[in-house]
Design goal:
single chain; 489 residues; Neurolysin, domain 3; 2 domains; three-stranded mixed beta sheet; 3 strands; metal-binding; hydrolase; carboxypeptidase; EC 3.4.17.19; Metal-dependent carboxypeptidase
Length: 489
């Protein structure tokens, strides 16, 4: 075997173990008995110790130095392996293991604190997570910016300054458009209660309508919806609310976007560094375009209206056009995952600024709730009513995902560019969506982006699909056109 062959064999085993660790995380959120949390923390720590040892194994450096890839794919494999190795050797093994244990336990404590509206109960473990993540960030940064180092785990090649520039350009346009929309009468919402079992039935129909392959996946419920896995085993979760079925349906479509990206990556890349989505920003571009540009379109909601009438009967919305307005209603709300397209990015910008301050030390964990509430009131014009609608609503910080939040808005920016290119490539898109047929759209995304996995860097992945470098203007143009039409601006 050549050095390249030996490296790839070793890497496939590492990737397989990482998938097992991911399955432990999926089980913790869906099936695990609540009392098992301390033991699961130890199990996760043990798996992380094994994975860290493999990822930082000195032989990887030797193989990288000796490997001679034969083509573009081989070069990309080495690029991704080297990036992972360079990161792994900077983080002490004991720190990696401790982080895995603490964040596993913190996830359960966050869920309990959220259920009990008890920030004080969560503060001690979040302080521990933040302290450990600062240590990790300092090790990775090697004297540079800690938060920039953390972003590399989710959006390689991007800096906080670059993200800030995008957000600064977007914010005033979003705020002005929101003000204009909120001056108009709000559309009528849904009436009645919606059986959770029937919601899950229709959620599965939606998942399959967007191309999710149930033979290689499953749909379950969790406190915070997520997608897990890659290749031949990609699982999704959603959640239900008896008064708000849109929460279930659009969470499902969102996670299906993530899952289809993973399911559609070329099988040749299975259990290799190229066999995953290249970044969370690119991943979010798939979940957001599925959920919003396709799933909330006038054409598709017309079909969904009929499906909901079949399942739930009369729910107080007279016709498909009124249903389209209800799906896209711009309204006051606290929850990021339930936010309308227009205000969603403002929720992300709030978190981006707060987590940067947490990592820099400018914000103490004990002051987080007060800082969150003050910023929310400033940005949205009304007060947070309870912690589960404020700083306890997201799972991310409990599990140590600092640097993740800005990728949600980067994904929206990328999705805007992809949608522009998709509409040019599929002129009769609306006709197909009106029949509940997403295949032309999802095939285009599969061919132009998803199948390539991590072959290219994040920006190059989007540029390859769109034909140009990404920028935020396509997203802003899409939002202005859509909401001007909806609200007669």
């Amino acid at each position: 075997m050549t050095a390249f062959d030996e490296l790839m064999t070793f890497q496939r085993e590492t990737q397989a173990l990482a998938q097992v660790a991911g399955r432990l995380g999926w089980d913790q959120e869906t099936m695990m008995p609540r009392g098992a949390a301390p033991q699961r923390g130890e199990e996760m720590a043990a798996m992380e110790a094994v994975l860290h040892a493999r990822r930082s194994d000195p032989r990887v450096a030797e193989w990288l130095a000796a490997a001679a890839p034969a083509d573009e794919v081989g070069q990309a494999q080495l690029r991704e392996i080297k990036r992972g190795y360079d990161r792994a050797v900077k983080v002490p093994a004991d720190l990696a293991k401790t982080l895995a244990r603490v964040t596993s336990e913190a996830q359960g404590k966050w869920a309990d604190a959220r259920a009990n509206e008890d920030v004080a109960a969560f503060v001690p473990v979040l302080e521990e997570v933040v302290a450990l993540k600062r240590q990790e960030g300092q090790a990775l940064a090697e004297g540079g910016d800690v938060y920039d180092a953390m972003i590399q785990d989710y959006e390689p090649g991007t800096t906080a300054a670059e993200i800030s520039a995008i957000f600064d350009a977007m914010r005033p346009e979003l705020v002005d458009l929101r003000a204009a929309v909120l001056d108009q009468p709000a559309p009528k919402g849904l009436d009645g209660r919606f059986d959770a079992g029937k919601q899950m039935q229709l959620a599965q129909t939606l998942a399959e309508a967007f191309g999710y392959t149930m033979a290689h996946g499953r749909l379950d419920k969790a406190v915070h919806p997520f997608s897990s896995g890659s290749g031949l085993d990609v699982r999704i979760t959603t959640r239900t609310s008896e008064t708000d079925p849109f929460n279930c349906f659009y969470s499902t479509i969102h996670e299906v976007g993530h899952a289809c990206y993973e399911q559609n990556i070329a099988r040749d890349y299975l259990l290799t560094p190229l066999g995953n989505g290249v970044s969370m920003g690119v991943h979010e571009s798939q979940s957001r375009i599925y959920e919003n540009q396709l799933g909330r379109s006038r054409a598709f909601t017309g079909w969904l209206y009929g499906q909901m009438r079949d399942v739930f009967g009369d729910f107080g919305v007279p016709d498909a056009e009124a249903f389209y307005a209800a799906v896209n209603s711009v309204h006051n709300g606290y929850i990021r995952t339930e936010a309308d397209e227009l205000q969603y990015n403002l929720h992300v910008m709030l978190r981006f600024d707060l987590e940067r301050d947490l990592m820099s030390g400018a914000l103490d964990v004990r002051d987080l709730e007060e800082a969150w509430n003050a910023r929310f009131a400033s940005d949205f014009g009304y007060a947070v009513d309870k912690p589960s609608n404020g700083c306890l609503q997201d799972v991310h910080w409990s599990v140590g995902l600092f640097g993740y939040f800005p990728t949600y808005s980067l994904g929206n920016v990328y999705a805007g560019c992809l949608y522009e290119a998709l509409r040019a490539a599929v002129p009769d898109l609306d006709t197909q969506l009106a029949q509940g047929d997403t295949s032309a759209a999802t095939t285009w995304l599969g061919d132009n982006l998803q199948q390539h996995g991590a072959l290219r860097t994040p920006l190059a992945t989007i540029e390859h699909a769109c034909g140009h470098a990404p920028n935020h203007s396509a997203l802003i143009s899409y939002l202005k056109t859509k909401f001007a039409d909806l609200y007669d601006l």
